[in-house]
Amino acid sequence: MKKNIIFFLIIIITGAYFFSKKFFLYPSEEKAMKELNYAQQYLSEGETDKALNRKNIKINYLGFLGIASKFPFTKAGNISKFYAGICYYKLGDYEKTIQMMKSFSAKDEILSSMKYGIIGDAFSQIKNQKEALKNYVIAANVRDNKITTPLYYYKAALLNFYMKKYKNSKFFLKKIEKKYPFFLYKKNVEKYLMFIENKL
């Protein structure tokens, strides 16, 4: 009897999922994508406030905040949280940046790395060095690659340097020097290492 009940529950749940996907999620995704295009256009033009639409401006578009709120179960709604986090950062609202980035679900490894990197930047701006360092290290280790990994190790190194934790700074700089010889800020890495070697 119990097996039959479980079997019927599975059929009902599966049916409900496909029904909602066909008749609710797909149309919503299409609408959300159209709104996302408007918001992205404003952002590309440097109209950060309009792209975010945090003041709920009565214009015929939602903005990243509206998309994330109205279409939370769509891909466009999810990526809008990421964009909203960027907008808040540009506007200097670092608490909101952290909040939006944490709510963003990143399946792509590069986006995931950027998510934690931006959270680290926001914590750094509000002088929470411990959380900033933690997120930089997470960002660097999401996926080993030649772009985001050395970048966030570099940010971790700089933060430790300005906190006068030179041994910790050296640790991250050495990782970059050994493994990422073509890093964009390679010359800076060499300069900081030279300074630290003389200091220690």
Short description:
The protein has 200 residues and is an all-alpha fold.
Written description of the protein model:
This protein has about 200 residues and is mostly helical. The protein folds into two domains: about 1-95, no CATH class; about 105-200, Alpha Horseshoe (Serine Threonine Protein Phosphatase 5, Tetratricopeptide repeat). It is about 80% helix and about 0% strand. The chain has helices spanning about 1-45, 50, 65-70, 75-90, 95-105, 110-125, 130-140, 150-160, 165-180, 185-200. α8 runs antiparallel to α9. The protein is elongated, with a radius of gyration of 22 Å.
Write the layout of secondary structure elements.
Elements: H1 2-44, H2 48-52, H3 63-70, H4 75-90, H5 94-103, H6 109-125, H7 129-141, H8 148-162, H9 166-179, H10 186-199
Helix pairs in contact: 1-3, 1-4, 3-4, 4-5, 5-6, 6-7, 6-8, 7-8, 8-9, 9-10
Cα shape: elongated
Number of domains: 2
Count of alpha and pi helical runs: 10
How are helices and strands ordered from N to C?
HHHHHHHHHH
Keywords:
single chain; 200 residues; mainly alpha; Serine Threonine Protein Phosphatase 5, Tetratricopeptide repeat; disordered N terminus
